[in-house]
Amino acid sequence: MTSDHEPRASGTAEKRSDRTKAAILRAARDRFAADGYERTTIRAVAADAAIDPSMVMRYFGSKERLFDAALAIDLRLPDLSAVAPQDLAATLIRHFLARWESDPADDALLVLLRSAVTNERAALRMHEIFATQVAPALGAALGPRAAAVAPVLTTQLLGLALTRYLIRLPAVTALDPEQVVQALLPSVQATVQSTPAH
Question: What is the CATH number of the domain that holds 54?
Answer without folding.
Answer: 1.10.10.60
